[in-house]
Write a structure and sequence with these properties.
The complex is a heterodimer of chains A (291) and B (612). By secondary structure, chain A is of the alpha+beta class. Chain A has helices spanning 2-20, 33-63, 79-108, 245-253, 258-290; strands at 115-122, 125-130, 164-166, 170-174, 179-185, 190-193, 202-203, 209-213, 219-225, 237-243, 256-257. In chain A, the strands form two sheets. Chain A has a six-stranded mixed beta sheet. Chain A has a five-stranded mixed beta sheet with strand order 4-10-9-6-7. Chain B has helices spanning 8-13, 16-20, 49-54, 59-89, 99-135, 143-162, 192-221, 234-265, 289-322, 330-343, 361-387, 396-419, 421-427, 431-461, 467-494, 512-543; strands at 276-277, 280-281. In chain B, helix 8 runs antiparallel to helix 9 (289-322) and helix 9 packs parallel to helix 11 (361-387). Chain B is globular and about 85 Å long. The chains are: A alpha+beta (291), B mainly alpha (612). The interface between A and B is large, with 100 and 113 residues.
Chain lengths: 291, 612
């Protein structure tokens, strides 16, 4: 008898925990409400099955505990019951699968007007690239990456010149504007994950992966790496600030383009060369003096 | 070679017709069982201590050896989990746990528990001990290979444990060993640690193949007369199907281990694309990290069922015996095991929904994954329908079975969340996943292992474990484990990612701190509670009650050996002849509430047996 009571309390406790839990979804800040809804649906159906099965078990424990001399039923099979249970389960599973697949279909089909954001990951940090005025990102190559070209943009690609570079773990996004995250990694697997946006995808070295979402709540969010990437994994954080259009555009206009970076570096190089020349000149003068 | 059973030819020649004549007053054909097709096996009997207890060819001793070695690794895994929980619940309290250490603990805990503990325990331990006994064989068909199998496993464990002591320590790549980080700087143990892990895994697969061939062929070829496939206990069905899965799945692990070893040692690029590391381009290029994930999960998902199917089988038998009722829907149960086994090869990429593989795969793998829920649910229904209208002994064994049902249904339901592709997106790589798989393939199979220990201990050791201690052991373990993993799901909802050494103070995650402390405390208690079992075993061996023969009044053949514990050769002079399935409990008209598999129809002609 004790056993039945304790098992019953475990089931009851589970249900109460679920109802009163202070630990639940972080407030959603993207368009993926459908994911939350499917989870709620799964909780109802799955939770219902869990409670039903366990309560039936508890009932059996109470009702059919061992009594000397009692005969258990002898019924090896019950085709009808088994058939009913099979079909009912199939139906339930299909009811859960359908919304799951519908939302997945949305997840893999990116809206045409989505802003492409190149998220580049390495051990252990992030940086971002946005398309410039032409609306297109330039192509990249890992082997192009160096101090002058931190994103590895193909210099010959005309689309790459006006790309906006954000050399920081933090990026800003425009509210209510769909974003297509293009993920690439230069070393190991990573995953650009913001719990409030619900969505995620691994960054895989060698290929470009993608996913999309539409932020719909202005605010600052933490970015976490969600795919184990070595000993600094837990510290690989970043941030997103979702802004309204005005603020976002202001932020955008302050960012540097690839062209700017090249110009800046050429200038720097030019100055460097000038310094070298001057030095040589002074040096040469000294030599002359000695002679 | 064989020095006993010299007169075996005489009873071999004895056809079943001669036996069948003995039934009194019934038709002589009633008890007919087809004569044996194969001659009796030659057994090599031990001649020395070493042959008897070390390099032993008796499957039962090998089973115990497997069991003890696996339990040893399990204890190591448990200690590692304590250290992890120490860091997660009380960060900074144990200063010696650095991030490197933490990831090494995570990795070794995972690999040890899944492969070296659970797989070896179910198939090597229970498989070896129970298969020959339950199918009515004298031993495995290849005893020598069986012995090699264990020693190969032993070496694999030794190599694995050695990695704790090499420079750089064991690998900290996560138990999934995803390249490229696995073999690159930035991951702890990327030198010796990972190499030893890959070598150990390869050895394990080789050793397991030797054992697996034995289990399969023994079940297919060495069943005693009358033991048709559809009369086998579900334990044997579970282990058999799991072995077939293992034989098909482990090669994927072996090749991926070998390929990664080549990437590491020879600089091949199976899994290695162009990589920029510390400003330098490494000498790799063109490989695919996702290829490894496909290979790994092609092994990894069936692996889940390699653990689960023997547990399903064993728990079915335990429930039936202790509910004094036939297992409900035996044929459905068999086909569910086989069906789940077959389907398990078509669901692997549900571990990879957000891996960057072509996202269109998601539709296929979500569908197959949810289809597998149907036969699994049928098994659950049949377990509780077996309890229904039974005559349930609420003893320790049954408690573990009930605990299994609760944890397995719980973990199965959360599996539907994760299998359902778009629901998986927010939950993957969070603590929801950790909670799910620990509940469904950690705690649930562990419940079965414990139940099986209490159930078969009288057979193996000849003594009854203490019931009172057993119940304490059960309730602390069950309630403790449940309160670890049930609330842990909710950390996943908050969004807490897994494999984080430290959460810092992410604003929305601070509420998880108290919960983490609670979970850690529960983990320490549950781990320590396992000492109750150790104490129980020690106490029982010293002062325990001697077990009578067949103490649970079970039907299957392992309880009908000539001696308890069974000697080498299991069944004395004559192998048992089987006339029925092992689930004839409370047959109307029968005097006792059980009919052993060996009961001939003529003995029970007055009963209303439906299924034989």
């Amino acid at each position: 008898m004790h056993a039945g009571i304790i098992f019953f309390l475990v089931i009851l406790g589970s249900v109460l925990f679920h109802i009163f839990t202070p630990w639940y979804w972080t407030d959603i800040a993207s368009n993926w409400q459908g994911m939350d809804d499917t989870i709620t649906l799964t909780f109802w159906v799955g939770g219902g099955v869990f409670v039903a099965v366990c309560l039936f078990m508890v009932y059996c424990v109470f009702r059919y505990s061992y009594k000397e001399g009692r005969k258990a039923e002898y019924k090896p099979e019950d085709k009808k019951l088994e058939k009913i249970l099979t079909w009912a389960t199939t139906l339930g599973v299909a009811a859960l699968l359908a919304p799951g697949l519908i939302i997945w279909n949305q997840y893999v089909n990116v809206p045409k007007n989505a802003l492409e954001v190149d998220v580049m990951a390495w051990q252990w940090g992030w940086q971002y690239r946005l398309p410039g005025e032409d609306g297109k990102l330039g192509t990249t190559k890992v082997t192009n990456i160096n101090d002058e070209n931190p994103f590895g943009i193909n210099v010959d690609d005309p689309f790459g010149r006006d790309d906006i570079l954000v050399q920081s773990d933090y990026i800003n996004l425009e509210n209510n504007k769909p974003v297509k995250i293009l993920l690439r990694s230069v070393d190991v697997l990573h995953n650009w994950y913001v719990p409030q946006f619900r969505s995620k995808m691994d960054a895989v070295p060698g290929i470009v992966t993608f996913y999309w979402f539409e932020p719909n709540k202005v605010g600052e969010y933490e970015v976490l790496c969600a795919e184990y990437c070595g000993v600094g994994h837990y510290a690989m954080r970043g941030g997103v600030e979702v802004q309204n259009t005005e603020d976002y555009n202001k932020w955008l206009s302050e960012q540097e383009t690839f062209q700017d970076l090249i110009a800046k570096q050429e200038k720097l190089e030019f100055e460097n060369k000038k310094i070298v020349k001057n030095n040589n000149f002074i040096l040469n003068k000294d030599i002359y003096k000695e002679e | 070679m064989s020095d006993e059973y010299e007169n075996k030819s005489s009873y071999q020649a004895q056809s079943s017709e001669t036996i069948s004549g003995t039934g009194s007053g019934v038709s002589p054909d009633m008890d007919y069982v087809r004569p044996a097709e194969n001659p009796e096996q030659d057994l090599y009997h031990a001649h020395s201590f070493i042959e008897k207890w070390v390099f032993c060819q008796d499957a039962k001793v090998i089973g115990v050896q497997y069991f003890l070695t696996a339990v040893f690794t399990g204890v190591v895994g448990l200690i590692l989990s304590w250290l992890m929980r120490l860091q997660l619940g009380f960060p900074g309290l144990a200063g010696f746990i650095t991030a490197e250490h933490y990831y090494q603990f995570v990795t070794m805990h995972g690999m040890i528990m899944v492969v070296y503990f659970l797989t070896a325990l179910f198939l090597g331990g229970f498989g070896n001990y129970l298969i020959p006994l339950m199918v009515g064989a004298r031993d495995m068909v290849f005893p020598y290979v069986n012995m090699l199998s264990f020693w190969m496993f032993f070496v694999a464990v030794a190599v694995l444990m050695a990695s704790f002591f090499v420079p750089g320590g064991p690998t900290g790549a996560g138990w999934t060993l995803y390249p490229p980080q696995t073999i690159l700087e930035g991951t702890p143990g990327h030198g010796w640690g990972i190499l030893l892990m890959l070598i150990s895994l390869s050895l394990f697969v080789i050793g397991f193949t030797m054992g697996g061939l034995n289990y399969m062929i023994t079940i297919l070829q060495a069943r005693t007369r009358g033991m048709t496939l559809m009369r086998m206990p579900l334990t044997v069905w579970g282990i058999f199907t799991a072995t077939v899965l293992a034989m098909l799945a482990f090669p994927a692990l072996l090749v991926s281990s070998i390929m990664m070893t080549l990437d590491k040692l020879l600089g091949t690029s199976f899994f290695m694309p162009t990589i920029l590391k510390a400003g330098e381009v490494l000498e790799y290029g063109g490989g695919s990290p996702i290829l490894f994930q496909h290979l790994f999960w092609f092994f990894g998902h069936p692996e889940v069922y390699i653990v689960a199917l023997p547990a399903f089988g064993i728990v079915s038998d335990l429930i039936s015996v202790h509910a004094r009722k036939n297992i409900f829907g035996y044929r459905m149960m068999v086909w569910a095991i086989v069906g789940i086994g077959a389907l398990s090869f078509f669901v692997w990429a549900h571990h990879m929904y957000v891996s960057g593989m072509n996202p269109w795969f998601g539709f296929f793998f979500a569908s197959t994954t949810l289809i597998i829920a149907v036969p699994t649910a049928m098994k659950v229904y049949n377990w509780i329908l077996t309890l229904w209208r039974g005559n349930i002994r609420i003893n320790t064994v049954m408690l573990w079975c009930l605990g299994f049902i609760v944890t397995f249904v719980n973990g199965g339901i959360t599996g539907i969340f994760l299998g359902n592709v778009s629901v998986d997106v927010p939950l993957s790589d969070t603590y929801f996943v950790v909670a799910h798989f620990h509940m469904v393939m950690g705690i649930a199979p562990l419940m079965v292992i414990m139940g099986a220990i209490y159930h078969w201990f009288p057979l193996v050791a000849g003594k009854m474990l203490d019931e009172k201690l057993g119940k304490w052991h059960f309730w602390t373990t069950f309630l403790g484990a449940y309160s670890i993993y049930f609330p842990m799901h909710y950390l996943g909802f908050i969004g807490v990612p897994r494999r984080y050494y430290e959460m810092y103070d992410s604003p929305y995650m601070t509420s998880g701190v108290g919960l983490n402390e609670f979970i850690s405390t529960a983990a320490f208690i549950v781990g320590a509670a396992q000492l109750i079992l150790v104490f129980n075993i020690v106490k029982t061996m010293k002062t325990g009650k001697k077990a009578e023969k067949n103490p649970w009044k079970a039907n299957s053949l392992e309880w009908f050996t000539s001696t308890v514990p069974p000697e080498h050769g299991n069944f004395g002079q004559r192998l048992p002849v089987v006339h029925r399935w092992p689930y004839d409990y409370n047959v109307p008209g029968a005097e006792e509430d059980y009919l052993p598999q060996t009961a001939a129809p003529s003995e029970v002609a007055h009963t209303e047996v439906e299924k034989t």
